Amino acid sequence: MWPRTLPRRGLRERSPEKGRALARHSPAEIRKALDQTCQAAKAANIWAIAGTLQQTRDRFLNLAHVISPAGVIVHEYAKVHMAGRDEQRFCRGGNKLSLFKIDGVLCTLVICRDGRHPELYRLPAMAGAKILFQPSCSSDEIEAVIWKRTSGRAQQPAGPTSKIFHCVANTVGQSPDGKQSSSGSSFIREPSGMPLAEAGFYQEEMITAVLDLERADRSYVLDSLKDPPFLRRYWKEMLAEIKQRANVKPE
């Protein structure tokens, strides 16, 4: 999994007068890069999650693409909650939650700021997801970044509210203009919230871990499905809608 491909600096205005937003690369260039990523996944015989920025009639979508070892995109998810002035201005949120399978294992994903909204992964966990993937670009001015690192605020582990695995791929280093730095600290955490693998702040790293899926018993979300009793039928209705929309293409 790669960090998400839409840092805030990835958007700029075409001109101050028109205030029109655009990506640094054309749609054709983005499509070509995504095709190359699919071919690389196929050549390596691995699953991959990569991000793109897609223009629509109404602003941009911040997308994550799940790519199979055959090099095929099998699932797409659009970030729901925007972060920062540029993203809020130039992008809009998606209209579904993520639910897909990797080698028969139900998974879900959120993008960056989405992780602040537990319903986006707790509901898929109720539907059976055992692993949460979170590509991210948690960056800010250096003072804010130091505070985020010290408090552990950049990405909160999902396990303690769901009992599922949580895999985060965050950016590292500084923005090209030096005005912002990344929180770094990519991780793989087990359902208790304890780390199985962690990365640093300043340089790219690859981290791996073996996941004992029996530990992802989803006990916290299963308890929520049962109690309080008056919510049970509402959970059931929401889960049916989530499953129905899982394969809807974001647009």
Largest beta sheet: strand ordering:
6-7-8-10-12-13
Distance between the termini: 23 Å
Compute the number of strand runs: 13
CATH fold title: Nitrilase/N-carbamoyl-D-aminoacid amidohydrolase
- The tally of domains stands at 1
Please report the number of helical segments.
7
Return Rg in Å. 18 Å
**Outline:** globular
**Low-confidence blocks of residues:** 6-22
Tell me what portion of residues adopts beta-strand conformation: 15-25%
Tell me the CATH architecture.
4-Layer Sandwich
Task: State the helical fraction.
Answer: 25-40%
- The first-level CATH class name: Alpha Beta
Please tell me the overall pLDDT.
87
Element order: H for helix, E for strand: EEHEEEHEEHEEHHEEEEHH
Q: Identify the CATH homologous superfamily.
A: Carbon-nitrogen hydrolase
Quickly give the structural class.
Answer: alpha+beta
Architecture overview:
This protein has 251 residues and is α+β, with helices and mostly antiparallel strands. Strand 12 (187-189) and strand 13 (195-198) form a beta hairpin. It has seven helices and 13 strands. The radius of gyration is 18 Å and the shape is globular. The chain has one domain (8-245): Nitrilase/N-carbamoyl-D-aminoacid amidohydrolase. The longest helix is centred in the N-terminal third of the chain and has 18 residues, at 27-44. 37% of the residues are buried.
